[in-house]
Amino acid sequence: MAKIAHLIRVDPGGGSHPKGTRICNVCNATFAQIKSIEDHIEAVHVKIPVYECDFCSETFTYRGAKHNHVSKYHREQNKMKNIPHY
Ligand SMILES: [Zn+2]
Ligand SMILES: [Zn+2]
Q1: Is the residue at 64 inside a domain?
Q2: How far is 30 from 33, CA to CA, in rounded Å?
Q3: What is the pTM of this model?
Q4: Three-class DSSP category at 76
Q5: Which residues contact 39 (CB under 8 A, 6 or more apart)?
Q6: Is the domain of 40 the same as that of 55?
Q7: Domain residue limits at 31
Q8: CA of 39 to the centre of ligand 2 (A)
Q9: For residue 44, which ligand has an atom nearest its CA?
């Protein structure tokens, strides 16, 4: 999952929103629930797909980078992995 914590701020109260309201740093939309704002940011603002290596925890922003990584570091493992993982 993409890192989105830096896109969320929490209203300290005293303003126009109840204390603890989550505010989207990108478009200033407000949400009462942390889950709602996470869904909002992932759906609306996270445009970069993240590809995760099947063999280690490396992540890549495009498919080609993952492919390069796998063929460089996990070639043997990849050869043996013929079963679809879902
Ligand atoms: Zn937003
Ligand atoms: Zn890897």
Answers
A1: yes
A2: 9
A3: 0.51
A4: helix
A5: none
A6: no
A7: 5-45
A8: 28
A9: 1
Query: Ligand 1 centre and the CA of 30: distance in Å?
Result: 8
Q: How far is the CA of 74 from the centre of ligand 2 (A)?
A: 6
Digit-coded pLDDT (tens) for 11-23: 988 878 889 999 9
Residue 86 belongs to a domain: no
Residue type, 36: S
Provide the strand spans (E) within the chain. Answer: 8-10, 22-24, 30-31, 51-52, 59-60
Residues 16 and 37 in one domain: yes
pLDDT digits (tens, 9 = 90+) for 24-83: 999 999 999 999 999 998 888 876 667 889 999 888 878 899 999 999 999 988 888 765
Question: For residue 18, how far is its CA from the centre of ligand 2 (angstroms)?
Answer: 44
Residue 14 CA to ligand 1 center (angstroms) comes to 22
Task: Count how many domains the chain has.
Answer: 2
